[in-house]
Amino acid sequence: MGPLPGMAGPRPGAMPLPGMGLPGRGAPGMGAPSGAAPLPGMGGPRPGVVPPFTQPAAPEPPPEPGPDRSRDPFATRKVDPSVASIPVAPVEEATRRDSVYPAYSAARLKKLEPKQLAMYVGVAVLLLVVGGIAGRIVTGRRSQNIAVRDAMIVVYEVKKAAKALADLQPMLASAVQKAASKEYDPQHLAYMNENVRGNPLRPVIFSERNFKSYDNTIVEGVTDYFTSWGRLYRMVLEHRNKTENDALSLADKALRDKARYGAIFGRNEADNNKLVAKIMLVGGMKSGKDGMSYTMQSGAGMYGDSYKLFNPPEGKADPEFSKAPGDYVIELGADDSKGILASASRTQFQEYEARLVAMNDLVKEMTDLQNGVIGKLDAIASRGGAAFLAGGIRVDREFEDYVAMDKAAAAGGGKAAPAGKAE
Known about the structure:
Structural class: alpha+beta
């Protein structure tokens, strides 16, 4: 049977409606078979456009790189969410909180029981008392060790000076004894030139040692001993110089008992060139090819110049005297010496003997003085130093170091560098 009127059959190439497939023309619900024309108004795909359902699947993105375990070995660990959610205070806030609320704040002390609070206060007071007592013990022991150490060092220095004094004393005593017999002793002068060379006590003995803890008699004794050595050295220098200047008169027995005088001449230019004389002390006489010559001194121990003795033969004038009167001396007679000039000055030998006696007396005084000083300082040194809690002052070690450096300096010709200065 043909198609009903007004209903045309399917046009060639037309796509049947869904569900209207025909046998042999395609499965129900499926599109038109291959080669079928599209429906009107339902044009096929545009050229170059691929329908979404016909596009290939997009590739999956590469996985994110994992943490670098060489830098953070804990990065791969899983964190418990409950732990990760705990808030953490910043460092600044925690520091501020700890400073505002210390362990023993005032609020916490209020909660302490009275017994506990009293116990804490008692412990603190006990620590203060114990610390104060320990500090006093250390201070006292330190002062004691300094006093003992410095006493040992001062005794060491005084004993060195005492040895020099002990060596000088017999030489002086022998010279004094010979001088009492009108005998000149040049040996003591040679010894002084060789061995007495200044004050053996150095001034730093006062600046480098602590005398505050000593008795005033000890301080005065050491000071007097030091100044006495200076005085003795000045006396030795004076004696040595004057004895050398008086060497001729001291060796001449004729000049030991009484002083001899002479007159030297010169021209006074202020008074019309008048010839004037000056009385001098005869310091020595020497015979030569040109006759006798006298050494004339202005006083004992003073440097003298040599003059020709003016002693022309009787009845003959000396024309040279009028030409150069300043080259001559005329000796005064014995009567004149006993008269006006009898008490003018002592002889050179008398002055020499007086200097020896004065030095010998001073040495005796210094010997007594040094023995007293050594005895008092030895009493302090004999106490010994404290071995513990002494503030680092080791008496024996520092004294041994001082002696070793002093001996090394003496051997090298330098000065000692003392250990343990005054504190």
